[in-house]
Structure formats: structure tokens, C-alpha cells
Write a structure and sequence with these properties.
This protein has 15 helices and 13 strands. By secondary structure, it is an alpha/beta fold. The protein folds into two domains: 143 residues, Aspartate Aminotransferase, domain 1 (Alpha-Beta Complex); 234 residues, Type I PLP-dependent aspartate aminotransferase-like (Major domain) (Aspartate Aminotransferase, domain 2). The strands form three sheets. Strands 2-8-7-6-5-3-4 form a seven-stranded mixed beta sheet, sandwiched between helices. The longest helix has 29 residues. The radius of gyration is 21 Å and the shape is globular. The chain binds pyridoxal-5'-phosphate. The site of pyridoxal-5'-phosphate (PLP) has 13 residues, from helix 4. GO terms for molecular function: transaminase activity. It holds the Pfam family Aminotran_5. Keywords: Aminotransferase, Pyridoxal phosphate, Transferase.
Length: 411
């Protein structure tokens, strides 16, 4: 039988739930950034007090600082099922895609083609589209305007002999439908096309097995997955070799520095391992011990997803049947992440969000940097959508609170 998430245990790992100024406030803006877990906060605090100096130098405190950073790379790699040297920790995913696009711009030649979607967050569209100025051809894998979904048949027709790169999202931050990443990457590989997958909206719901997905490059933002404000970029070895070192030439021996020319925030890198401390604790509390890192990662992912699904079905059903609400994305909870975008009738998403905030619901409204998607769906990006997003630590009572608040605000 599947393990059931112990919510009291989960919530005891998040100081925000003990914070008096947040009591009674139901948090539905997780897609913007999740609460940080205790272990991350402890590691940050400890780093700043004990090891806030140049890492990897001779002094034991300096050595300890470096060792903590290495540990974060190793532990992230083990959860993502890749090698530690394939994990790059940059300032954000937007910064990471910018570096990536510069790198691809140096190896692709005039006439080469890149396929982008109009479903992605702008962080994984604009930097690629900008390469048009260098003579690269940008093709668009377009969403179905009625649903916001991407269809595989539309993609197949876009591949040509000149296609070098396919850039898409694991899960849109507005539509929330989970795209079949493994299948798409396989199609791309068969056509000799490299893949960049934006997993930022997915990762808070469970760190994926990047190896199994088959992406050449996979991105996520740790601040939306209980960690510090960093972007994780997995670049598989063969892809890294093709692109080459983008950082200082003398750092060539350090692969994990190749795509982080900004230089890392040492304390945040060291504290990143706190996310995995938390996942380990989740695992050990709910399951028998295992020596397989992948089994552990998979169990934790399943545990979190299952907990979200029941609540998600309830919220979606409410929104879908409400005469004054339009649900964006599929009405089947199993097909999507726990991010629910809504367009209300008779008031703007901003007006509705304000009424919810007044009732203790933390949420936001707008285009969420998915302007091209909204335009394709005929939605005015100036008003956009109301977005309600939650994760595994959300409890049924908060969904009740949200639904009651929505009912009042729509009456
Ligand atoms: C789906 C998606 N991709 C990319 C980004 C950009 O991430 P970052 O804030 O780390 O640059 C975001 C941020 O909201 C996002 O939601």
C-alpha cells in the first residue's frame, strides 16, 4: 500500500508554519517560490557564522566551506540521478538559460534551427529567440489556443535536417499540464536534436530522474523547491563537451564551473544540501531504509505527488463547475501539477486576488512571465490569470479556506 504523507511531520520542517505573523494565512503562491525548509535555513546560518570565508583554501574552516559545497553537488546529483560534475549551480534559471544561449550561439551556424514553444516561461524562450539575430532559424511549437496544451503531432512536423535544438517545459507555470518529457526527448534524439527542458514548475512537486527523462539539459530553481535562491542546471557530459567551458579558461579542470561564469554564492550552494536533508528525513519517516538513491528519490516524489493529487482534484472540481470561473489547463488532476490558473467572470484576476488576500489567502495575479502563452490563448496579459499554487505541505483545511474565500469573493 502506498505510504500516506504525515503532514504534521512535514510541516514541522518548515519554520514559516510556526511564524506568528503568518498564522491563519493559507499559502497558495508556491509556484512563485516555496517556503524554505529548516535544514536549508540552518545550513545558511551555520555557513555565515562558521565558514564565511574563501572556500577550498588551506585553513580547516575554509576546507569545511568547500566540502559543504561539494556535498550539495553530490547530493543533488544523487537525487537527480546524474553525475555531480553535471550539476551547475547558478544565480537563477533565467541567468542559466542566458549563459546556455550564449554557448549555443557559439557552436550553431547560420541556418541551424532551434524549436521553442509558446507555452514556456519567457526565461526559456526569449534568450533562444534572440539568436535569430545571428542567423539562426527559430521555429515555434505552438500550443492549442483553446487549451494551452502542446501536441506531439505538431512537433513532429517541425523537425528538419537543420534542427539542432528543442527547448520546452516539463510543466508550464500557468497551464500546469505535465508534458511527456521522456517521449519528447526520445523523439528529439531520434532526429539528432539536443533538448533543454525547463523543470522549474515541476521540481517543487518532486525532483525528477533526469537520466530517465533523457534530457541533455534540465533546469530547476531551488527557491521553488524548499531551498535557497539558486538555479540548478544539469548539463549531461556529452552536451557540455559540445558547448565547451563558458567560464574562466583556467577553470577548465572544474566541469561544474563551466556554465557558471557569474561565480557561485558559496553560502547558498552549501545550504542547498538542506533540501536533500529534508527529503531524506521525509523518506526515512515514511519508508524502510534503502541503499538505492534512485529508489529513495522516486519514493519521495511519489509521496509528495500523491498527497497533492487528492487536494488538487477537489480544487479543480470546484473551479471547473463554478459558473463564474474559467479553469486554464486540464481538468484531470493526474495530468497536471498543483498550480491552478483561473479567469474570473465580471472582475479582473487582480480584483479577485485582492479579495482573497483580504481573507488570508496568499496568492497573486498577472501574466507570470508567460506572456506569449496568454496571447496565444487570447487572454489579455495585462490582466492575465489568478494563480493558486500549492505543494505537498498544504493541508485540506487550507483548500477549504480557499474555496470558502473564493465563494465569498465571487458571490
Ligand atoms: C516555469 C519557469 N521557468 C523559469 C523561471 C525562471 O526562474 P528563475 O526565477 O530562477 O530565473 C520561472 C520563474 O518563475 C518559472 O516559473
Amino acid at each position: 500500500m502506498a505510504a500516506k504523507l504525515d503532514l504534521a511531520f512535514v510541516r514541522s520542517h518548515f519554520p514559516a508554519f510556526k511564524e506568528p505573523s503568518l498564522f491563519g494565512q493559507a499559502f497558495f503562491d508556491n509556484a512563485g517560490g516555496s517556503y524554505a525548509c529548516q535544514s536549508v535555513i540552518d545550513h545558511l546560518d551555520q555557513y555565515y557564522r562558521e565558514t564565511k570565508l574563501q572556500p577550498y583554501h588551506l585553513h580547516p574552516a575554509s576546507q569545511k566551506a568547500g566540502a559543504q559545497m561539494d556535498l550539495s553537488h553530490e547530493r543533488l546529483a544523487s537525487y537527480l540521478n546524474v553525475d555531480a560534475s553535471e550539476v551547475h549551480l547558478g544565480p537563477s534559471s533565467s541567468q542559466n538559460t542566458y549563459v546556455l544561449a550564449q554557448a549555443f550561439g557559439k557552436v550553431l551556424v547560420v541556418g541551424d534551427e532551434i524549436i521553442v514553444t509558446n507555452q514556456d516561461h519567457e526565461a526559456n524562450i526569449g534568450v533562444w529567440r534572440a539568436l535569430e539575430k545571428k542567423g539562426l532559424v527559430i521555429k515555434e511549437w505552438q500550443v492549442d489556443p483553446a487549451t494551452g496544451s502542446l501536441h506531439l503531432d505538431d512537433l513532429k512536423g517541425l523537425f528538419s535536417k537543420r534542427t539542432k535544438l528543442l527547448v520546452f517545459t516539463h510543466c508550464s507555470n500557468v497551464v500546469a499540464e505535465i508534458n511527456p518529457v521522456a517521449e519528447i526527448c526520445q523523439l528529439a534524439r531520434a532526429a539528432n536534436v539536443a533538448t533543454v527542458v525547463d523543470g522549474v514548475s515541476y521540481a517543487g512537486h518532486g525532483l525528477p530522474d533526469v537520466n530517465a527523462l533523457g534530457a541533455d539539459i534540465y533546469l530547476l530553481s531551488l527557491y521553488k523547491a524548499y531551498g535557497p535562491h539558486l538555479g540548478v542546471m544539469v548539463i549531461r557530459h556529452a552536451m557540455a563537451e559540445t558547448l565547451g567551458n563558458q567560464s574562466h579558461y583556467f577553470n577548465n579542470a572544474y566541469r561544474h564551473k563551466w556554465f557558471v561564469p557569474a561565480g557561485p554564492d558559496h553560502a547558498q550552494v552549501a545550504a542547498s544540501r538542506g533540501v536533500l536533508d529534508y527529503f531524506d528525513a521525509l523518506h526515512d519517516h515514511h519508508f524502510a531504509p534503502t541503499t538505492s538513491a534512485q529508489e529513495k528519490s522516486q519514493r519521495v516524489r511519489r509521496l509528495m505527488l500523491d498527497a497533492e493529487q487528492a487536494l488538487l482534484s477537489r480544487l479543480i472540481e470546484f473551479v471547473d463547475q463554478h459558473p463564474k470561473l474559467r479553469l486554464i489547463g486540464p481538468n484531470d488532476a493526474t495530468k497536471r501539477a498543483a498550480t491552478v490558473s483561473i479567469i474570473p467572470q465580471g472582475q479582473t484576476p487582480q480584483e479577485l486576488a485582492k479579495k482573497l488576500v483580504e481573507q488570508g489567502i496568499i496568492c497573486g495575479a498577472g501574466h507570470f512571465y508567460a506572456v506569449r502563452l496568454l496571447e496565444a490563448m487570447g487572454i489579455d496579459p495585462n490582466t492575465g490569470v489568478l494563480r493558486l499554487s500549492f505543494v505537498h505541505y498544504t493541508q485540506a483545511e487550507e483548500i477549504d479556506q480557499l474555496i470558502a474565500a473564493l465563494e465569498k469573493a465571487l458571490a
